[in-house]
């Protein structure tokens, strides 16, 4: 685990665990994917020099340039795998959870609206969106004097 430090005003540095870094995740992904000669394989695939490839595989050292070369070679598969390695869930799982929370929030809001709406409200009030379009059209027909109108003078 990688530790970072942050300073609280007037106190000593406090250690903050950061968990897995992108370099750690890359190293883990590479060693899972390429069981033998991993450094040689990413050296060829990503067009890296031998020392850089060894640093990625053995120490998890990934520069911006190396990450860019890897991304251009592996495309979206790399980003999806890195996300899964870092966050412990796939992007599809995360999207599913996000969608579920949106649905639950919408259901709560709908329940709240139904609870607050008077039971005997006229149908015009319940369908205000349909009536709103007609009201705008009606308002344009009944322009008041002194207001600018979009209609041309004949």
Which properties best describe this structure?
154 residues; two-stranded antiparallel sheet; 2 strands
Describe this structure as you would to a colleague.
The structure is a single chain. The protein is built from eight helices and two strands. It is rod-shaped and about 75 Å long. Strand 1 and strand 2 (13-19) form a beta hairpin. The protein has a two-stranded antiparallel ribbon. It has 154 residues and is mainly alpha-helical. Helix 1 packs across helix 3 (50-59), helix 1 packs across helix 5 (76-87) and helix 2 crosses helix 3.
The largest beta-sheet arranges its strands as 1-2
Mean pLDDT: 79
Inertia-based shape: rod-shaped
Multimerization status = single chain
Order of helices and strands: EEHHHHHHHH
Number of strands: 2
The description of the largest β-sheet is: 2 strands, antiparallel
Rg computed from alpha carbons, rounded to a whole number of angstroms: 30 Å
Structural class: mainly alpha
Helix fraction, binned, reads 55-70%
Assess the beta-strand content as a share of residues: 5-15%
Give the count of helical stretches. Answer: 8
Task: Please give the structural blueprint.
Elements lengths: L1 E6 L5 E7 L2 H12 L4 H9 L3 H10 L4 H11 L1 H12 L3 H26 L6 H4 L1 H14 L13
Antiparallel strand pairs: 1-2
Helix pairs in contact: 1-3, 1-5, 2-3
């Amino acid at each position: 685990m990688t530790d970072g430090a942050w300073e609280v005003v007037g106190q000593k540095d406090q250690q903050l665990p950061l968990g897995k870094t992108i370099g750690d995740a890359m190293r883990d992904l590479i060693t899972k994917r390429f069981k033998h000669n991993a450094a040689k394989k990413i050296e060829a695939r990503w067009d890296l020099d031998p020392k850089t490839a060894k640093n990625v595989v053995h120490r998890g050292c990934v520069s911006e340039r190396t990450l860019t070369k890897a991304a251009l070679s592996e495309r979206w598969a790399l980003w999806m795998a890195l996300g899964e390695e870092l966050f412990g869930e796939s992007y599809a799982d995360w999207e599913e959870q996000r969608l579920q929370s949106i649905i639950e929030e919408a259901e709560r809001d709908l329940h709240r609206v139904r609870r607050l709406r008077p039971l005997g409200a006229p149908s015009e009030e319940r369908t205000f969106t349909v009536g709103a379009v007609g009201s705008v059209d009606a308002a344009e027909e009944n322009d008041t004097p002194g207001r600018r109108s979009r209609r041309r003078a004949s």
